[in-house]
Specification:
The complex is a heterodimer of chains A (403) and B (255). By secondary structure, chain A is α/β, with parallel strands linked by helices. Chain A is built from 14 helices and nine strands. Chain A has two domains: 261 residues, TIM Barrel (Alpha-Beta Barrel), CATH 3.20.20; 115 residues, no CATH class. Chain B has a three-stranded antiparallel β-sheet, covered by helices on one side. In chain B, helix 3 packs antiparallel against helix 4, helix 3 packs antiparallel against helix 8 and helix 4 packs across helix 7. The N and C termini of chain B lie far apart (43 Å). The chains are: A alpha/beta (403), B alpha+beta (255).
Chain lengths: 403, 255
């Protein structure tokens, strides 16, 4: 498994540097955040300059049925602009055929064989038994059918955007999986809509355990490729469940997907600088948290062993000015990717699950050690999310019969 | 050639139209599918006649010289490993041939599978209950042989429960389990058909390997996977199923 960059506003040179430094292995491009000509140019350039990278285009069609979405540059894309402002009555069979055709034709004609996959258009749904989920399924089936007729050189990923609340009920998850696995396609591109967005905000253990199972059934059992967007720190657990690729970006809204991204901005202050610690499975604030760890003489135990560590090695407070947003992003990718690579090197799913458990247990031990040295953490950095993940993994193991 | 007469008057619940429609489907399916693992049409096409005032429908099927698996199991016992793999490959090929036309068999059981005396090939018989997903259902009641039902074959609560070939794979899983172990996977502890149906819906069968020591673990896992309660946990294509079977063969050959 490998980590992909989830693109958004303010790309700069991060993607090229991340690909060059091997901390990401591909890119998911978001048309909402850049002019169409820049999107097309960037995708074709990445494909040329990094032929082994997996580059794909997220059509973000799901914004088309949101209420007055802040959809940025999406209106520059005909497949979206011709079809935005959609209500429940705008998803007849004929209309769905048109949305699918326009979206896949655009990718096929513009990117040809350059992108790793074509991605189908979809809409967001909140529950597996609501009428929108049926629309999403109809769009998926139509996309698979149309892709077969397209004779594209690239395989198809069926896109799904699902609210985390949909995973409250297991029966509904299983019914949906039965329907989904009837589709003849290469795989799925899945985004989980989170209810809130904070630095960690681990999904609730039950729904996340069931989402892991959902991914396991698609990948390990049914041999589909599965890419989970906006997965961030959840990546190593999804890797244990069998997911093919995960993705994360630089801003918080590129690390977790929420509808706030499509709603009017409420402003807000510049986020405080953080360091992504693979051993802690979290992002402590550079000051005071990382500085306190340094003063407790425990800094080496939380470092992710990346080439960027030199900046803060002689004191995070002193190095904070050099810890730029771009460096922080690359260091974050390094940390998330290093965990995934550690798991993917293992030969069996059981071994990967055990390694994920070890990573979490080691992180909790480290938190205890830091606590005993009077290092305190903000709730958004603290270890609660790890306990939630441990419960998720137990839930997943039970569901998948891997206990 | 084997004549296949159906007395419409014998049917308590079905109208003549239903019987005719089923016979038409059976004939149509045999004509559409060209695999050697499905029984073929004989020289007499679908006809009707009147015998002693009762209308009958008749047509002929190929005469298969051999033994059905139900009687084979009683007279000869369980299959060898290579016979099991061969059975799974042949009948899955028949399921695939039917599914190419968006149809499912719905009545796969030992009594409906013959082994040809000449070639040893397995042949799936009796397309009378074939269900066409693109056509109107002929019955609102579950049809088939209850002991070989898939869980979704009797589930009317699940609104997404449109059956597909994975239902036939479940029934094939029961047949393979029986031919591997001599036991039906869902009969243990059952005292009635309802108990068996309850077990099909809820009980986890014992591993075939536990009942037949020496059966390769991977073949045992394949059979159990066919018996998964949810279609999503079986195989999403016949090709994937057959690939898994060939891996069993390859491993066996390497030993």
């Amino acid at each position: 498994m490998s980590l992909l960059a989830q693109c958004g506003y303010g790309r700069g040179g991060k993607i090229e540097q991340g690909l060059d430094e091997d901390v990401i292995h591909g890119v998911i491009m978001s048309p909402r955040d850049e002019h169409r000509d820049r999107v097309e140019k960037a995708i074709n350039e990445w494909c040329r300059s990094h032929p082994n990278a997996l580059v794909m285009f997220d059509p973000q069609f799901y914004a088309a049925n949101l209420n007055n979405p802040r959809d940025g540059h999406l209106s520059e894309f005909d497949y979206y602009n011709n079809n935005s402002g959609l209500g429940r009555t705008h998803f007849s069979g004929t209309r769905i055929q048109r949305y699918v055709k326009e979206c896949l034709d655009y990718q096929h004609q513009t990117f040809g064989g350059n992108v790793g996959y074509l991605s189908s258009p979809t809409i967001l749904f909140d529950a597996f038994r609501d009428s929108w989920s049926q629309v999403a399924l109809n769009m998926a089936v139509e996309a698979a059918d149309y892709h077969h007729s397209l004779k594209s050189p690239r395989p198809l990923l069926i896109s799904l955007v699902i609210s985390e609340t949909a995973f409250q009920t297991m029966d509904a998850v299983e019914e949906f999986l039965d329907a989904l696995t009837e589709i003849d396609t290469q795989g799925f591109y899945i985004i989980i809509r989170r209810n809130s967005s904070s630095v960690h905000n681990a999904m609730e253990s039950g729904p996340f355990g069931r989402f892991m199972y959902f991914c396991h059934v698609l990948t390990t059992i049914n041999e589909y490729d599965v890419i989970v967007g906006y997965s961030d720190w959840h990546s190593f657990l999804l890797q244990a469940a069998g997911v093919t690729h995960t993705a994360t970006g630089w801003y918080q809204n590129l690390r977790q997907f929420s509808l706030a991204r499509f709603q009017p901005s409420t402003g807000g202050r510049r986020p405080r600088k953080r360091y992504s610690s693979a051993p802690l499975l979290s992002c402590p604030l550079v000051t005071p948290e990382l500085q306190d760890i340094y003063l407790a003489d425990l800094l080496p135990s939380v470092l992710s062993r990346s080439i960027y560590d030199g900046i803060i090695h002689n004191g995070p407070a002193a190095g904070e000015a050099g810890w730029t947003d771009e460096i922080a992003c690359l260091a974050h990718w390094h940390s998330v990717n290093s965990l995934s690579e550690r798991l993917s090197a293992l030969p069996t799913q059981r071994a990967r699950i055990e390694e994920a458990e070890n990573l979490m247990q080691n992180a909790l031990t480290l938190y205890s050690q830091l606590s005993s040295q009077n290092v305190s953490f903000d709730p958004s950095t603290g270890p609660d999310h790890i306990r939630e993940w441990q419960d998720s993994l137990q839930e997943f193991r039970a569901l998948a019969g891997l206990s | 050639m084997a004549p296949n007469p159906t007395h419409a008057g014998d049917q308590n619940r079905e109208s003549l139209d239903d019987v005719t429609s089923r016979a038409q489907r059976e004939v149509e399916t045999m004509q559409q599918c060209s695999t050697p693992y499905l029984v073929r049409m004989g020289p007499i096409g679908l006809n009707t006649a009147c015998v002693e005032g009762d209308p009958i429908i008749y047509f002929s099927e190929e005469f298969v010289e051999g033994q059905n698996l139900h009687s084979y199991l009683h007279s000869n016992g369980v299959f060898s490993l290579s016979e099991l793999v061969c059975l799974a490959l042949h009948i899955s090929e028949a399921i695939k041939a039917i599914w190419q036309f968006a149809k499912i068999h719905r009545d796969i059981k030992p009594g409906n599978i013959m082994r040809r005396n000449d070639s040893g090939d397995f042949v799936l018989l009796d397309m009378g209950l074939v269900f066409d997903l693109q056509d109107e259902p002929l019955s609102v009641c579950p049809v088939g042989t209850p002991y070989y039902f898939s869980p979704e074959q009797m589930d009317f609560n699940n609104r997404r429960s449109v059956m597909n070939f994975r239902s036939d794979l479940f029934s094939l899983g029961i047949v393979l389990y029986e031919m591997a172990t001599g036991n039906h996977p869902f009969i243990q502890g059952a005292t009635s058909t309802w108990d068996v149906l309850g077990n099909i819906a809820n009980a986890t069968p014992r591993s075939p390997e536990a009942l037949r020591p020496g059966l390769p673990e991977n073949l045992s896992s394949i059979i159990l996977r066919l018996l998964a309660k949810r279609p999503a946990l079986r195989y999403r294509s016949i090709d994937l199923f057959q690939r898994a079977l060939r891996e069993v063969e390859t491993e066996r050959a390497a030993q």
